[in-house]
Amino acid sequence: MSRIAEVFAKGKTFIPFITCGDPDLETTEAAVRAMAENGADLIELGIPFSDPTAEGPVIQRANIRALAGGVTTDRIFALVRKLRRDVTVPLVFMTYANVVFSYGTERFVRTCAEIGLDGLILPDVPFEEKEEFAAVCRGYGLDFISLIAPTSQNRISMIAREAEGFVYVVSSLGVTGTRREITTDVEKMVKLVKEQKEIPCAVGFGISTPEQAAAMAAVSDGVIVGSAIVDMMARYGKEAPPHVGAFVKEMKDRIRKENGSMECPGNERSGKD
C-alpha cells in the first residue's frame, strides 16, 4: 500500500498546499514542518510557474514572488531532500506541464522518486493527454493525480476508472481562491467517481474556513486548502510558519471533531472510515 493510500485509509484527510519559495525556501521549509507537526495528513508543494492558468490572484502573485526570488525546480528538489530527513507525511508536487517538459519528463519524475515524493498533479493536462506523464510516474512508483471539475459531468466516469492515488475534486468553477460558499453538488461528483472505482476523493478550490472544511469532509474523503494558506504566507512573510501551523491544527481538529468516523458516500462496501 502506498503512503497516500495509507493516509486515506486512516480516515478524513486534511491536505494543505503551499507555493515553494514564497517568501523564500527557508520559510517554506519551516511552514511545511509546522503543517506536518499540526496534523496535515498529506502536503501539496507548488512548483512556481510563470503562467499558472488554474490559479487565482493569490497563488498567481505567490508564483511571481517565488520566481522573482530565484526559485528553481532544482532548488525545490533540494528542499524536499532536507524535509525528507524527518517529515514522513506524503508529499505531492502540484505544477504545470511545461515545468515538467522543460526539465525533461523522465528526469523530473525519476528525481521525484529519488527524493521521496509520492505523487504529481498537473492541472493543465487534459485526460486525453495524461498518459504521457502517468506512464512515467507509474514506472517510478508515483501516483499521477487526476482532477474532476463541475464541468466534467460526462467525463467523470472515464477519468475515475483510470485515476491513481486519489481524485482531486474541484469544488467550484473557475480558478483557485477562497469563496464565501460552495454551491456545487460535490457529493454527487464523489458518488459518480466511486461508482467506477473505490478510490479516495479529496475536495479543493475555494475552501478557507473550518466550517467549509468540515462540510466538504462530510461528503468526501479529504479536504484541500491552498489560497487561504498562501495568503497567510504573503501577510506574515518569514513569520508565517507558526500561524500556518495553528491554522492547519484548527482545520484538522474541526474535520476530526465533526467527521471523525463517518463514512464517505460510496465507501460502504469498503468499510473505510
Topology overview:
Layout: H1 3-9, E1 13-19, H2 25-37, E2 43-46, H3 57-68, H4 73-83, E3 91-94, H5 97-103, H6 105-115, E4 119-121, H7 131-139, E5 143-148, H8 156-161, E6 167-170, H9 186-196, E7 201-204, H10 210-218, E8 222-225, H11 227-236, H12 240-259
Helix pairs in contact: 2-4, 2-12, 5-6, 10-12, 11-12
Walk me through what this model shows:
The chain is an alpha/beta fold and 273 residues long. The protein has one domain: Aldolase class I (TIM Barrel). The chain contains twelve helices and eight strands. An eight-stranded parallel beta barrel has the order 1-2-3-4-5-6-7-8, surrounded by eight helices. Strand 1, helix 2 and strand 2 form a beta-alpha-beta unit. The longest helix has 20 residues, at 240-259. The chain starts with a helix and ends in a 14-residue tail after the last helix. The relative contact order is 0.18. The model is unreliable at 174-180 and 261-273 (pLDDT under 50).
Structural domains: how many: 1
Based on secondary structure, the structural category is: alpha/beta
Mean of residue pLDDT values: 90
Total number of strands: 8
- Low-pLDDT stretches are 174-180, 261-273
What about the largest sheet? 8 strands, parallel, barrel
Distance N to C terminus: 16 Å
The CATH C-level class name: Alpha Beta
Task: Find the CATH topology.
Answer: TIM Barrel
Known CATH architecture:
Alpha-Beta Barrel
State Rg.
17 Å
Find the CATH superfamily: Aldolase class I
Overall spatial form: globular
Proportion of residues in helical segments: 40-55%
Give the spatial strand order of the biggest sheet. 1-2-3-4-5-6-7-8
